[in-house]
Task: structure prediction
Amino acid sequence: MSPRTRPPPTLCRPPDDFSLVLVGSSLGGPAALASLVGALSSEFHAAIVVVQHAPASVARPLVRRLAGACPLDVVVVEDRTPLHAGRVHVAPGGAHVELEGQVLRTRHTPPEHGCRPAVDVLFRSARGRPGVVAVVLTGMGSDGLSGARALRRHGARVLAQDAASSAVWGMAGQVVRAGLADAVGAPRELGALLESWSVRHRMARGSLERATDASVNPSATSLQSFDARDLPPSGKARHPHAPRSGPG
Result:
């Protein structure tokens, strides 16, 4: 298969207990990140951690840009920042970020791939953690490749930006060429896929709650399956019972 060929994103299944998205980007990353999170709704349930190759002066402007692009809370990571569901956590420039339980730690260990923060450092720290999705976006070099490989061995899903939408198809291209990508697409397409998984997660939880209620109340309604066609072009999830717009 050509590296430019896209597996249809809708055929990629979410991980079990989908709860954490780790994103790495470099050159061209701020625009790609804004497009990715712009496809998410205010009900997106998973925690998101972003590593963008950048100096310290870029972190807060990036937070403002992402906060303006999506309805989620966006923060700069400080040492021992709690990992919060439905929040975007942005690595500070000049420090690596690692997961330690439910807390994000900053480390001033040596750079990797000439970068600090480095994507591989974040990805490695999530090995063995359930419900992880790794997303590798535009950028030069191969940062994220070894970390994506380690995560995939532990059952994580790996998404990668396509060549056509990348400023530089280096980091994501390395992941695709290594056969590690479960889905390849433009950032907004990948964001829409993540949103669809979040909708499915919320519906499954609602189904479980209704099943529990049904043991007392047999008339409780059953879960309706989510269909990727319920995502309009904006990438925002349409409620499964809402009327479809347009003809048909």
Observations:
- The domain at 15-196 is CATH 3.40.50.180 (Rossmann fold).
- The first helix runs from residue 29 to 37.
- The two ends are 35 Å apart (CA to CA).
- Residues 1-5, 216-248 have pLDDT under 50 and may be disordered.
